Amino acid sequence: MDFSLTEEQEMLRKAARDFLATECPKKLVREMAKDERGYPLELWQKLSEVGWLGLIIPEEYGGSGASFFDLVVLLEEMGRACLPGPFFSTVVLGGVTILETGSDEQKQELLPKLAQGKLLLTLALTEPSARYSADGIQTKAVQENGSFLIQGTKLFVPDAHVSDYLICAARTKETGIPEEGVTLFLVDAKSPGINCTLLETVVGDKQCEVTFDNVKVPRQNILGKLNEGWSVLEKVLEKATVAQCAEMVGGAKQVLEMTVDYAKQRVVFGHPIGSFEAIQFNCADMLIDIDGCSFITYEAAWRLSEGLPATQEVAMAKAWASEKFRRVATISHQIHGAIGFCEDHDLPLYFKRAKTWEVNFGDANFHLDKIATMAGI
Amino acid sequence: MDFSLTEEQEMLRKAARDFLATECPKKLVREMAKDERGYPLELWQKLSEVGWLGLIIPEEYGGSGASFFDLVVLLEEMGRACLPGPFFSTVVLGGVTILETGSDEQKQELLPKLAQGKLLLTLALTEPSARYSADGIQTKAVQENGSFLIQGTKLFVPDAHVSDYLICAARTKETGIPEEGVTLFLVDAKSPGINCTLLETVVGDKQCEVTFDNVKVPRQNILGKLNEGWSVLEKVLEKATVAQCAEMVGGAKQVLEMTVDYAKQRVVFGHPIGSFEAIQFNCADMLIDIDGCSFITYEAAWRLSEGLPATQEVAMAKAWASEKFRRVATISHQIHGAIGFCEDHDLPLYFKRAKTWEVNFGDANFHLDKIATMAGI
Amino acid sequence: MDFAFTPEEEAFRKEVREFVDREFPPKWREHALDFFSNAGGPYDEQWSLHRAMAKKLGAKGWLSLAWPKEYGGRNSMLLQHILAEELSYYRFPGLDPFGVGMLAPMLLKSGNEEQKKRHLPGIAKGETMWCEFLSERDAGSDLASLQTRAVEDGDYFVINGQKCWTTAAHRADWGFIIARTDPEAVPNYRGLSFFLLDMKTPGISIIPIANMAGESEFNEVFFDNVRVPKENLVGGKNRGWFVVMGVLDFERSCIPAYGIARRNLDDALEYARKTKPIASALRNRLAELIVECEITRLVHYRAIWMLDKGLIPNYEAAMTKVYGLEVNQRVTATVCQVLGHYGVLTEGSKWAPLDGQAPSRYLRSIGNTLEAGSSEVDRIVIAQRGLGLPR
Amino acid sequence: MDFAFTPEEEAFRKEVREFVDREFPPKWREHALDFFSNAGGPYDEQWSLHRAMAKKLGAKGWLSLAWPKEYGGRNSMLLQHILAEELSYYRFPGLDPFGVGMLAPMLLKSGNEEQKKRHLPGIAKGETMWCEFLSERDAGSDLASLQTRAVEDGDYFVINGQKCWTTAAHRADWGFIIARTDPEAVPNYRGLSFFLLDMKTPGISIIPIANMAGESEFNEVFFDNVRVPKENLVGGKNRGWFVVMGVLDFERSCIPAYGIARRNLDDALEYARKTKPIASALRNRLAELIVECEITRLVHYRAIWMLDKGLIPNYEAAMTKVYGLEVNQRVTATVCQVLGHYGVLTEGSKWAPLDGQAPSRYLRSIGNTLEAGSSEVDRIVIAQRGLGLPR
Fold first, then answer.
1. What are the counts of helices (DSSP H) followed by strands (DSSP E) for chain D?
2. How many helices (H) does chain C have, and how many strands (E)?
3. Which of A135, A201, B131, C252 has its CA 20 to 30 A from that of B32?
């Protein structure tokens, strides 16, 4: 067992923290919540230049060939910084899917552009049922003259408004078994029949409603095999879920640091509030929550990185991070008092993300249910 | 609205507290946990003399004609004192059932004796399935020559080992609807075919396994109407559940008082621990829990006393008392430290009762499920 | 004990409901209204509506229900509470928590006759809106350490300093302020005085502070040689602490947590009924919250009943606030969880259920246990005054 | 990071499991054995078994795995932890927490060569059982305020006073004791000394104290002119506090909470599988506890890994204890809830599932967060040493 990062990972962490401190101040985060695009183009270019868009892309496709665990280290810092923009959708949802299932030709075409910051991607998965199980996919794709016509509504699709391609999960066959008959299509976002609307959200992240009205997709834009998309999605969702947990861990760590700093400096009744027993107990509980979330997230990430089965660990990580980041942010508000309740304080940025990230890729109840089923109860 | 007890109820409460302080010291409670009968005969006689066995029995049947709410006031004190013995089974489970459904002849025969301390009763309801819903009743009674033959096993029957009669709920008809076809029989505990075994329990209360092997019961020993026993049981269970809550409220109040006394007097690092913020927060939470349990219990008891529908309030009271008495006792242990962990301290008596009473008449999950169903979700 | 209302009380509740049903403008029914945020909502119209409804409530005589009969009241905390419970449940505006809830009882207890005659009618009629200047940036829970100064100068006191977190300062007609008149006093709370302040007085500047739910209720307020006539000193010089503390138990009983929380819960229950089956853990949680709301209701009526009996609820009042508002926090969090992914959608989104209000109610509820005395203070009141634990 | 064990470590774990499987007397398998209560169980046989198994563990060289090689160890906290985890999971006796877990590291750090030579072999071989005399009735969390005196007298120290909550004092061969040698010392912890004490020394009287689970592990122990030779003073006069504190972080890492809690949880899961469907809220709860056990495991290996790297886990060690034992409390409570009515039935009842042990494990777990430094102390360590909050 080894609980330390490698030297390279420590360097990546430090580089990310420094970069984001400069390039992603909270002022930017707040501005971007109201900005229609949601991120500055220059920042995207810089993310490409430092090599992070292509971090996990093999060198043969123009990336750095780093591990999934390395990406988790980076994402933790992005969560700390509340980085706005389509990094998650492009690199995790798009990049991982193409890495998992794209043909060599597709990889050759797409991945170098992705690493260079010239291609934005996202995954159009959830629908109005807002479910992450296979039966949530009701969007249909029917074959016609060698192409497919996609019909349906996708909801809560991140960053679709700026994506060049949407990876759309659609049902190509009805067998009565939800896991069968799902196919992944690489859909040009400018195809006729696609309509994309930004949703108003509490974080100001860019989630979209995307309607597909007989959108024509050529057969060669299938990712992986016809009707066999669900097993790919399962793998992608496992990585995406852990990636989300990494952001949550980063956010929670930042919240605790802010809280401890504040508790040391805020004086009430002649003493810093951090010397009060109840505040100390609160902070200790926050650290317990955070260490727990970190390790279970790292364990899941390590297993995925090593190619080991990780279904249970992934469910554990998300069940825990969903509850605990919210709890940490809530306790922090109670310690910060009125000052943290102001819109221009940093804390609300995290509190709101805790809420949003809690539901992405399934909330605690969804994952606890999985864990219980795996335990045979 | 009126949140005060009547003058008579205040007197009853005080009389009960004084009586129990003298007659039911904790030494006795501990002895009786190991005693096979489980209570001293003299104490039973005294309970009759002060009029509490007949408290809710109408004057025409030799009782005091007090209200169910008055009984709840008394039971709260008994819970405080951890009174051992068959008061609950005789007065609540037995007495209430006969009051609800007995014929005038049955009342004339049984109730005066009950009030005089000459008749012990209990309710043989639960079976190995340990359920409080109608489908838990699988014990059968078949008619034969004007009598009934009862066959089955009852489990967790309180005080059956000393009872003169067992009120046994048995299935007399199968209609496919569990609520139909249940009949209540007044069974002489000395009938051939009855076998009673004491169970080993954590509290040392006297719960029994009672097997009925073709036990013959004359037809006139039916309480209420043939096949219509379940609706009576529902009423009895509502009162029994609230009566149980009253004991729990009393226990919890006593625990909090012990805790506060200890926290004022125990000095650590030069200060009484009760002056530490974290202990104050703990104690405040205990009081919040206890006031909540009290009021919801009183509201349910008041509704039952007034003859108003109380199904939801009863479920609320038991859901809350089950969780909160346990929580109060657990926090109290943490405040008391090692001294409260000793077997001869009073606190474990309450901690163990919190566990036992939690499951009697349905635990929190059982009642929360009821509440959710009533809310239409 | 008796958990029933009298026929008169039931009739009053019915009258309030009919009033609400009649007066509530349809376009606002499902909108952003909230018992707490009338001053801070995103729409000016909301404040206008608040003022208009206050006058209607005043015309019914409902803003002075708790007052003694000689001041036009009905001497009934219970009726005032029933009113507040119903209005908060229906998210109906018009009840000024600062005038009706805080200042009126202070004046009734500590004001002189002239002050009562001058200021009570405006509150009773719903014509004058108030704000309160207690907290400062560095004096919240430790209120007695406040730094704003008031210095005597002829017939005036001259106020200099700054207050913070003042709800509705930008909207209110009058404010009440506690300031330091004796900086040497030991203990420090013996050097504070309490003043009534016309918000049109020169020298007051107001900077709005938006809260995390995006509402601008709060303000930071700066006092630059603000001259307050001596007739506006309440309770005597250096007696301000006692003016405030004398009604604290009363004030703590004034937040109708049950109405607020139960309405939010009912929203979630209604949604859950439509979309069931919901996750079993959430079903369990909602059932728990039904119990918690009922306990909130009962704990509150206990304190109200005490007040009407002439008893002083101290820990009982603190409990209504800390428990009720923590329950509401749990409710608003659970509402969002029941909505799942939809629980992050805000006003304006066509996909947003409950008019997109669930997230902002959740965010707003975080403030409930910070303002008007934090939960920590309430718990200490319960422990020390309710249980007698040592300071 | 790397969450895998090496093949050698896996092989060692397998060896331990095979040993347990081979050595565990069948009649004890489902019985009252517990990692915590070997000294306090209701049966004398249990202690005999504990001693017998200690010798077998000693013969395998498993009681000194964490020690330096020159003292016959393998210098591996990880192996010791794997051993403890497995033994606690299988409720296998023989690992003396006082000798192996506490005294050995103290001697290795603060003892002189003679003391090491004399006392370590008995521990390593599983022949000498120890008990610890730290707490007194009025000195628990505030250990430094202890009152037991030790006065120099020629070649001896003479001990007078009383200790409390001493686990296994009635069974142990030797004890270690901290006593006051300088009553004038300021601060008070600078006047304490640490001694090794042969339990056969005249003047020791022992009164058993049963705990609420009915077990008699604890004792109150009285010292009446107990003479301890000076060679048994460890670390020097008035340096006793540092002997104890120097290994606190190590000791906090020694309680194998994961093994204990996970086994209890597995009991409940197995029962639930047989009796499903269980209440949905309990199903959810069990899933949460599966996560909590896994976190307990990970948090613990982090501290162990630090120790093997030569780092000092301070808050990390406290976290293993407070979190792991609180998890076990939640587990034991949930086990009882899963059993429902059957959860109140104790040993001897034919209807009792899990051999009637569920209630006593639940009762016993209450002590976990009180003994060996309470949860409150652990949380303060985490806050002050882990997060740097002020004292």
1. 12, 8
2. 12, 8
3. B131
The minimum CA-CA distance between C100 and chain A, rounded to whole Å, is 24
| Neighboring chains of D (3 or more beta-carbon pairs < 8 A) | A, B, C
Minimum mean pLDDT range among C41-55, C259-273, C304-318, D280-294: C41-55
Distance CA D342, CA B201 (A): 9
Q: Is the CB of residue D366 less than 8 Å from the CB of residue B333?
A: yes
Residue A1 lies in a domain: no
- Smallest CA–CA distance, residue A349 to chain C, in Å, is 9
Contact predicate D203/D224, CB 8 Å: yes
Same domain, B84 and B148: no
Residue type, C165: W
Q: How confident is the model at residue D26 (pLDDT cuts 50, 70, 90)?
A: confident
With respect to residue A346, please indicate whether it lies within any of the assigned structural domains. yes
Does any domain span residue B132? yes
Among B229, B258, B279, which residue terminates a domain?
B229
Residue C139, Cβ neighbours under 10 Å: how many? 18
Residue of C nearest to A342 (CA): C211
Map tokens 């309607």 to a residue: A211
Both tokens assigned to A98: 């193409």
- Give pTM, 2 decimals: 0.96
B125 contacts chain D (CB < 8 A): no
Q: What is the CATH number of the domain that holds B262?
A: 1.20.140.10
Strand bridging mode D233-234 / D192-198: antiparallel
Strand, helix or coil for residue A39 = coil
Window from B173-177, D159-163, D276-280 with minimum mean pLDDT: D276-280
SS3 D68: coil
Of C252, C335, C256, C293, the closest CA to residue C88 belongs to: C256
Question: Which residue in C has a C-alpha nearest to residue B364's C-alpha?
Answer: C288
- Residue whose C-alpha is closest to residue B97's, from B252, B247, B264, B221: B221
Q: Phi then psi for D32, rounded to 5 degrees?
A: -75, 5
Residue with tokens 């603060």: D110
Secondary structure of residue B110 in the 3-state scheme: helix
Q: Is D71 on the interface with A (CB under 8 A)?
A: no
Residue B100 and residue B30 share a domain: yes
Q: Which of A76, A94, A120 is the last residue of a domain?
A: A120
Report which secondary-structure segment, H or E, holds A231. helix A229-265
My answer on whether A217 and A293 are in the same domain is: no
Q: Do A293 and A355 fall into the same domain?
A: yes
- Alpha helix stretches (DSSP H) within B24-103: 26-34, 41-49, 68-81, 87, 97-101
ipTM over 0.90: yes
Query: Quick one: B150 and B75 in the same domain?
Result: no
Q: Are B312 and B374 in contact (CB under 8 A)?
A: yes
Q: Is residue B56 part of a domain?
A: yes
- Taking the C-alpha atoms of residue C120 and residue C174, their distance in angstroms, rounded to an integer, is 12
Query: Are residues A287 and A251 part of one domain?
Result: yes
Q: What pLDDT does D251 receive?
A: 80
Interchain proximity D379–A1, CB inside 8 Å: no
Give how many domains chain A has, as a whole number. 3
Contacts of A131 (CB under 8 A, 6+ apart): none
> Residue A174 belongs to what domain range?
123-229
Interface residue A200 vs chain C (CB under 8 A): yes
Residue pLDDT, tens place only, C101-122: 999 999 999 999 999 999 999 9
**Domains along chain D with CATH numbers:** 7-95 (1.10.540.10), 132-239 (2.40.110.10), 255-386 (1.20.140.10)
Say whether residue C295 is in contact with chain B using an 8 A CB cutoff.
yes
pLDDT of residue C252: 83
CATH of the domain at A63: 1.10.540.10
Domain shared by B222 and B236, yes or no:
no
Cα of first residue to Cα of last residue in chain C, in angstroms, is: 34
| pLDDT tens-place string over residues A24-66 | 999 999 999 999 999 999 999 999 999 999 999 999 999 999 9
